[in-house]
Amino acid sequence: MDILAFGVQADEKPLIEKGFHGHHDVRCLDVFLTEDTAPIAIGYEAVSTSVNADLGARVLQTLAAGGTKLIAQRSTGFNNIDLDVAARLGLTVARVSYYSPYSVAEFAWTLATAVNRRIVRASNRTRDFDFRLDGLMGRDLHGRTVGVLGTGKIGEAFTRIAHGFGMHLLGWDVAENPACAGLGMEYVDKERLFAESDLISLHVPLLPATRRLIDAAALKAMKDDAILVNTSRGGLVDTEALVRELRAGRFAGVGLDVYEAEAGLFFLDKSLEVVEDDTLARLVTFPNVVVTSHQAYYTVDAVGQIVATTVQNVLDYVAGRRSENVLVPREPTSWGVSGK
């Protein structure tokens, strides 16, 4: 079976080609799946996509009309996929339900320490041979309070690092994680977490209930000198409200690896273009803000697991097997004898 992979980064390509070698032929494209690029998939039974692909109704209709039967998304998140439309069109949809939580947790701490100790500003200064320390003062994290919103696998890994720093641990989630509680985490309501935390890190999925979880009211409830880190999904934060608070001189630092309007921007070179997103343009001008382009997951370990799971999802589809990665299954009548 021929597979078309959209949105493949240069570092990913050899891993994907190696993963599918001996199983199926794969064609890797660096362009992302959109309404304009969807016709490229005509004749491909399986399509693999990235988290920023457009898998709305019109794209799904184009894929189905062109003969696509399987969409294998190379990410855990799937808020970009209209699952109801996919089901009506008879498309099978699978994702990567798990990969290294350490990749994201460690990167969240990278952002937290970078904004706390003004690493980007210090590096830029020394490139100009400016070795002053003015404006570079950070603070010890030991003994301070960290608030972790979402204590699943990634949140737990983040919490273990916070415990290593010797921080007081506050958590919020729909269910307590015994491993985090065992580290001394106290589960509290969001309001107390916002009010008491010196550092807040987001590790919840983007769902209707969590969209703009960090809204204007939540931001105002936080300490003026708090650090906010988001390595989960951009839609968790009301970015315009965040910009207003930053303009008012609030927050010791903000580290963002995701942005609510990142589709069509992140993973692309826009350096020679005029970026029309005024909110993002304003956000990156603040000296206490570090924005990266959705790279928290981007380690050889995590990407290797993502590729391996994507390959397995394709093999399961061909064999008629269903796994926990399947979001929209094939109709039972179309499965092989081993389908369950």
UniProtKB/TrEMBL annotation:
Coiled-coil region(s): none
Pfam families on file: 2-Hacid_dh, 2-Hacid_dh_C
Key word Manganese present: no
Any one Gene Ontology molecular-function term assigned to this protein's record: D-lactate dehydrogenase (NAD+) activity
Keyword Oxidoreductase carried by entry: yes
Record-annotated D-isomer specific 2-hydroxyacid dehydrogenase NAD-binding domain positions: 111-296
SUPFAM superfamilies linked: Formate/glycerate dehydrogenase catalytic domain-like, NAD(P)-binding Rossmann-fold domains
Assigned keywords, A-Z: NAD, Oxidoreductase
InterPro entries recorded: D-isomer_2_OHA_DH_cat_dom, D-isomer_DH_CS, D-isomer_DH_CS1, D-isomer_DH_NAD-bd, D-LDH-like, NAD(P)-bd_dom_sf
D-isomer specific 2-hydroxyacid dehydrogenase catalytic domain sequence ranges: 6-327
EC number(s) recorded for this UniProt protein: 1.1.1.28
Family from the record: Belongs to the D-isomer specific 2-hydroxyacid dehydrogenase family.
Full protein name: 2-hydroxyacid dehydrogenase
Native source organism of the sequence: Streptomyces lateritius
